[in-house]
Amino acid sequence: MLYRNFERCKRNCVYKMAHILAIRFSALGDIAMAVPVIYSFAKRYPQHEITLLSRSLATPLFEAMPQNVHFIGVNLNEYKGMLGLHRLFCELRKLQFDAVADLHDVLRTKYLCTAFRMVGIPTAVIEKGRTEKKRLTRSRHKELHQLTTTTQRYAATLAELGYPFEIRMDTQTLFQNSDITDKMEQLTGKKADLHWIGIAPFAAHKGKIYPLSKMEKVIALLSREEKNRIFLFGAGEKEKSWCRKWQSSYKGVTSVAGIFNLSDELALINHLNVMLTMDSANMHLAALCHTPVVSIWGATHHYAGFTPNPLEQDKRIELDMDCRPCSIYGKKNCKKGNYACLQGIKPEVIVNTIEKICNLH
Length: 361
Hints:
The radius of gyration is 21 Å and the shape is globular. It has helices at residues 4-12, 28-44, 81-93, 107-118, 130-137, 150-160, 172-175, 182-188, 212-223, 237-249, 262-270, 281-288, 340-343, 347-360; strands at 19-23, 49-55, 69-74, 99-102, 123-125, 195-200, 228-232, 253-255, 274-277, 293-296, 315-317. The protein is α/β, with parallel strands linked by helices. The chain contains 14 helices and 11 strands. Helix content is 39%, strand content 14%. It has 2 domains: 4-165, Glycogen Phosphorylase B (Rossmann fold, 3-Layer(aba) Sandwich); 181-360, Rossmann fold (3-Layer(aba) Sandwich). The strands form 2 sheets. Strands 8-7-6-9-10-11 form a 6-stranded parallel β-sheet, sandwiched between helices. Helix 2 crosses helix 6 (150-160).
């Protein structure tokens, strides 16, 4: 059962005209890209209700939304197999949705949409642009141009249901009241006039990770400046181990990997001068807070549409190579075997870019 989630949603919903269900289960970066879309829908259609069905871990991203936005977080392990999905559908149906937007298009969401259609509820499914993405990443005759962004695809899915709107990017209002708590301050200290620099050096796949030996050089160079305070983000035991090692090796470096929950991480990101990330979830979290982002790109490319809507102060660091991009998600092994697209990026270039942003803020 969804326990309190459904009961809370039923109590909070005041049905004025329509109640839309949007579904996006994973990954965290993709869920984060739904934030400006759900927010924009809510602002454009205050008379309607919209509920996002997602993983519970993403709850903090939607806590400060307008009153007509609701969030249902689920543990998908409780809804395994066809019987589990049918049980989930039956529980969702109790909320009497008027339409369903599938922002994921995977087997689970396909099943749910089919079930809703069978009871007469209109549905719309995201167009992922798989064919054009293959053309972007193929070995020869690549078609290098900007594809429709994921946020635009989300919005188009809702528009297909009859709700067109412009995407608003003023999401900093959702997180600007996120303060460093007394408990967090014991680890972070007071900011004062220090440069707070976040570094998220990891990603799901090797093709998106800047070599850790070179990242250590970046950390070493930044730590030489007394005004710099560096915070390391990560998850998983290997990532925590690397962060602890760098924390013990360099002055002014603090690991928050595995220590802060998502709400605390968002609060910290909101107070950073700059965030250094890979093509990963932390890039999107920083963009939501309107924290300046320096992102490193290897096998993947922002043309695929997974970058946040660019802010003027954001910087992408990447090499122009004939073989780039070779992958949409960074999963493929490098055909050359050396990941030259990442190995060729000099630590000094990254440090200079970060320092220029810090000096502006």
